[in-house]
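Box 3.1 A note on notation
Throughout this textbook, protein chains are presented in two layers. The first layer is the amino acid sequence; the second is a token string describing backbone geometry. Keep the layers aligned when reading.
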Amino acid sequence: MPILDDRSLEFLSHSPEQTRRLGVRLGEMLEDGDLVCLEGDLGSGKTTLAQGIGRGWGALEAVTSPSFVLVNEYRRANASILFHVDAYRLTGPEEADAMGLHELLTSGPPLILEWPERVAGLLPESNMTIGLSWVDDSRRRMRFQANGPRYERLLRDYRKLAFGG
């Protein structure tokens, strides 16, 4: 687990189950207003990680890919909401703005965003960006990048919770 600096962390997940477990740890720590951006090619594990994040956050139903509906909304027992947005099919920031992404980003609930590079002009500078890349059939490289003080604290706490260090 290379700790690149206080704002980044890189490691190898050896299975989809491990990727989900790492997501659970992150989901347990999410607060209202948090933005988690998931970057990576098709099949790199973004939705698998999002499933874990949703489970850790407390979603009452399993997280699925929002590729065709663009936005999925999950609730937990206390009625709070987690948004999961897939920007893959969006043509750019203008279309994302027209579909209400800006409102989702400023409405309060935590938001998981897949394919953030497609809507980069709308995103706040402060966020947690996780890049996933395919290594082989079961392994994925994951790189966490904390952008802003809130996310630097989150990454520091995540590192302790997930890896004990």
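The two ends are 10 Å apart (CA to CA). The helical segments are 16-27, 46-57, 93-98, 101-106, 149-163.
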